[in-house]
């Protein structure tokens, strides 16, 4: 099945126009005037994982996510989000909404969205979601060690460098800060997955959703830059405090610890300067 066939199957409408968006995503105009996107999954389970993630994140209405029209093993069909411009009211609303979403919680650290597969993806890299009793054991087992092993096999880290990541994993209970309950995470909230839409609204797309530590999404927002980042973070911190769950002391300083995971993903996908950046993040997290 191609993208157009998937769109027509999942929406029940005929396609009248097609517009490539880049990568594996294509925009389609339907006969009733609606605009949708068909995105081919990166691998087995990718489309179901993203669809269930969008629905889990969007169900409370705290943040805007595209409506899922349907999915199969290969294709995900959602509404198209038309771009707008960054603005302070939208940034503040997004920060407050993200805080509320995180506080909705999750059944466990590492759990997939309800009905979602354990084998998921973050971008073009495979990602495993399995419940753990605490965040340090989950982060070590599913977010650090698998990618370090892959990078060693690719010749991107030597044995001594791999040992540095092992030392970090051993010290995670101390480096993680105060214990927190699992949060409902987007999981890949870098700038490219945060869309400033029309009507002063911020949308989240392309999730790698799971139960995790809420500081992870905040660290991802910072990793590659985000317009009005300080406004978003200040609104988030204020909303979390007002809800009786303020961010733990030192959360800004722990950003590097949570950025380690996406840096390891980029290491195995792109190489380049990312191995050095991942090592620097690991070293900085245990100083």
Automatic annotation (TrEMBL):
Keywords, comma-separated and alphabetical: Kinase, Transferase
InterPro entries: Fructo-/Ketosamine-3-kinase, Kinase-like_dom_sf
Record's keyword annotation contains Kinase: yes
Protein name: Fructosamine kinase
GO MF term list: kinase activity
Family as reported in the entry's similarity comment: Belongs to the fructosamine kinase family.
């Amino acid at each position: 099945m191609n993208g157009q066939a998937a769109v027509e199957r999942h929406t029940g409408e005929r396609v009248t126009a097609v517009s490539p968006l880049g990568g594996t995503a294509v925009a389609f105009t339907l006969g009733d005037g609606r605009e949708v996107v068909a995105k081919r999954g990166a691998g087995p389970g990718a489309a179901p994982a993203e669809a269930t993630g969008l629905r889990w994140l969007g169900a409370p209405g705290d943040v805007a996510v595209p409506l899922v029209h349907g999915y199969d093993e290969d294709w995900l069909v959602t509404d198209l989000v038309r771009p707008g411009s960054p603005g302070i009211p939208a940034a503040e609303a997004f920060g407050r909404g993200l805080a509320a979403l995180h506080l909705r919680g999750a059944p466990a650290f590492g759990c997939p969205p309800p009905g979602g597969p354990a084998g998921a993806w973050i971008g073009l890299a495979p990602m495993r979601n399995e419940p753990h009793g605490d965040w340090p054991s989950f982060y070590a087992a599913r977010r650090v060690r698998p990618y370090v092993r892959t990078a060693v096999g690719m010749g991107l880290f030597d044995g001594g460098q791999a040992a540095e990541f092992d030392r970090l994993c051993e010290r995670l209970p101390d480096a993680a800060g105060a214990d927190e309950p699992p949060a409902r995470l987007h999981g890949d909230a870098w700038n490219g997955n945060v869309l400033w839409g029309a009507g002063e609204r911020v949308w989240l797309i392309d999730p790698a959703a799971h139960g995790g530590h809420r500081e992870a999404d905040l660290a991802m927002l910072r990793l590659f830059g985000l317009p009005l980042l300080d406004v978003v973070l200040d609104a988030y911190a204020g909303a979390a405090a007002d809800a009786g769950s303020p961010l733990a002391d030192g959360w800004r300083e722990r950003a590097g610890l949570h950025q380690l995971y996406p840096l390891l993903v980029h290491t195995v996908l792109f190489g380049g300067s990312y191995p050095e950046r991942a090592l620097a993040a690991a070293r900085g997290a245990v100083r």
